[in-house]
Amino acid sequence: KKWEIFAGRNKFYCDGYLMTAPNSGVFYFTVILITATCGLFFVFDCPFLAQRITPAIPIIGGILFVFTLSALFRTAFSDPGIIPRASQDEAAYIEKQIEVPNSLNSPTYRPPPRTKEVFVKGQTVKLKYCFTCKIFRPPRASHCSLCDNCVDRFDHHCPWVGNCVGKRNYRFFYMFIVSLAFLAVFIFSCTTTHIVMLLKEDNQFIDVLKRTPSSVIIAVICFCSVWSVIGLAGFHTYLTTSDQTTNEDIKGSFSSKGGQQAINPYSQGNICLNCFHILCGPITPSLIDRRGVVTDEYRTQMQSSTDKYN
């Protein structure tokens, strides 16, 4: 299968159906931390709260937990929008256009630029040439050095989800961090309520700690993590409503320059349309043929391209 000779550094599972970044250790830590925290909550806090307050607490917690993990796995194991590398013939054609001929290699000769310019809603956008993939990257695309791929609408590489975040999985990443924020706030509120109710009975915190040490541990974990999660969710809400990426925000692509406010040509015009476009629009098909059968011609072409450009 073609995934077995894929040029990038990604790892593939289930015969190419699933893919992740090459280093997934932090991702597994994320899964274990969420699962262990929620597991302790369901075992030690939910029975008490369901009996004393309402049986809806474990139901709400279960729904948030399942939704959070589902969004995490969908983000981690999907194609973020990888752009295929140029074939041998395509790469040779592009290289021929931008290379400097020996006969013209003089101080006065100006070689062809390694960028192209296109117009997006009347604004000039530069397409940069990728020396690894041998292509002119589309607007908003960028090359991830960790996965060694060009990704369409590249947002960032997130070790916590073990994958790049791009055009095809950004909505699932956004759903993950927002649902994780709600889950952290919910569990922290419930465990704090449990501790306060026990304090009214025992009057001493040390006695409460002996009765339910897990509640204190969960409360500390949620308290330490909830602020960063809420901040991250808020930041990506801002990016979603303005139709920007983390990469563009860091570079200041649409920030004010020279006293003039730069216009984002990718914005749909208002907050609602931007959110609908990013979170509810159709998901583009994957451009990489992961499960295709490798023919002798394809294998020869890939091997020749690798030998020539690597």
Automatic annotation (TrEMBL):
<keyword id="KW-0808">Transferase</keyword>
<dbReference type="GO" id="GO:0005783">
    <property type="term" value="C:endoplasmic reticulum"/>
</dbReference>
<keyword id="KW-0012">Acyltransferase</keyword>
<feature type="domain" description="Palmitoyltransferase DHHC">
    <location>
        <begin position="126"/>
        <end position="251"/>
    </location>
</feature>
<keyword id="KW-1133">Transmembrane helix</keyword>
<feature type="transmembrane region" description="Helical">
    <location>
        <begin position="26"/>
        <end position="44"/>
    </location>
</feature>
<dbReference type="GO" id="GO:0006612">
    <property type="term" value="P:protein targeting to membrane"/>
</dbReference>
<dbReference type="GO" id="GO:0005794">
    <property type="term" value="C:Golgi apparatus"/>
</dbReference>
<dbReference type="InterPro" id="IPR039859">
    <property type="entry name" value="PFA4/ZDH16/20/ERF2-like"/>
</dbReference>
<feature type="transmembrane region" description="Helical">
    <location>
        <begin position="216"/>
        <end position="235"/>
    </location>
</feature>
<dbReference type="GO" id="GO:0019706">
    <property type="term" value="F:protein-cysteine S-palmitoyltransferase activity"/>
</dbReference>
<feature type="transmembrane region" description="Helical">
    <location>
        <begin position="56"/>
        <end position="77"/>
    </location>
</feature>
<feature type="transmembrane region" description="Helical">
    <location>
        <begin position="172"/>
        <end position="196"/>
    </location>
</feature>
<dbReference type="InterPro" id="IPR001594">
    <property type="entry name" value="Palmitoyltrfase_DHHC"/>
</dbReference>
<keyword id="KW-0564">Palmitate</keyword>
<keyword id="KW-0812">Transmembrane</keyword>
<comment type="similarity">
    <text>Belongs to the DHHC palmitoyltransferase family.</text>
</comment>
<protein>
    <recommendedName>
        <fullName>Palmitoyltransferase</fullName>
        <ecNumber>2.3.1.225</ecNumber>
    </recommendedName>
</protein>
<dbReference type="Pfam" id="PF01529">
    <property type="entry name" value="DHHC"/>
</dbReference>
<keyword id="KW-0449">Lipoprotein</keyword>
<keyword id="KW-0472">Membrane</keyword>
